[in-house]
Every structure is written in C-alpha cells, then in structure tokens.
Amino acid sequence: MRAERIMISNPVTIQPNVHLGEAIKKMHPDGYRILPVVDAKGTVQGVLSSTSVIAHLLPEYISSGELKDVSFVPDLGVLRKHYLQMKRHGVEKYMDTNPVLVGPDESLLAVTAALVHKNQNECALVVDENRRLLGMITPSDVLHILRDLKLDEAHDA
Questions:
Q1: Residue 28: which residues within 8 A CB-CB, separation 6 or more?
Q2: CA dist 118 to 35, 63, 110, Å?
Q3: What is the pLDDT of residues 15-41, one digit of tens each?
Q4: CA angle 10, 51, 15 (to 5 degrees)
Q5: pTM summary value
C-alpha cells in the first residue's frame, strides 16, 4: 500500500510568519497536535507540534537538566511568562525544520519505519518532487489502515 492511499489529504497548515499565538488557536479547537508549515506556494518549510512548543516554554535551566528537582519552582507563572513572550513570534522560530518527508509512492512499511526511527513529531509529510505538501500520515493513520485491512487485501496491497 502506498503513502498516497493512506495520507490525510489537504491537512490544515500554517505559514512560517504566523504568530505562535495564532497557531495555537488553530491547533486547540480541532485537537490538532501537528501543523505542517508551508510557504505561499505550498512548499514544506517545517512542522510545528504541540510538543515542540511545550519544549520551548520550559526555561533553559530546566530543559537542560541542570535543575533536577523543579517541584519548588512556581510553575504557572514561569510558563505563562514564557508563553506571553513566545506568542508574538512567528512559528518559524519554534518549528522543526527537518520533518520526515516521504513521497506518494513510498510503501506503508517504509512510512512506518520513518515514523519510528526518524520522528519526534509523530508525522510524515507526503510531498511531491518539489517539496510541495500533498498530505500527512500519523501513526494513528497506519494503525487504522491495519485495523480495517481485510486479510486477503494484505496480500494485494
């Protein structure tokens, strides 16, 4: 089975100059955790994930591991202060600029291997030869395909 058959076509995207606050608003209501970042021509620039945003919210002394016990740090105030500073910047500052890219003809097995071995954002972006976004595949998409696949189809795919 090829990537183009299982991808989410026309995923919700954002452009690199969109403020992080706007991107978060776009993520939350519909439950998106990952937004492909594309330029005006639809060329992939990166991917913004809720996990990468959270990682940037942490103060350096915590994310670096220097401070082992953070239970005494006033958490909400620190996180809110960082969020207020971050939300005015474009998402290009917080996006992963090296997302997993696969072609539409990649096999399900190749896409699954890429998701496991190369990906902290839990998605593979399906692109054409010019890096234009065609779709997106998440681990959940792979599991849904496997769940719904009939045994005789497995040999034909």
A1: none
A2: 18, 21, 11
A3: 999 999 999 998 876 778 899 999 999
A4: 40
A5: 0.83
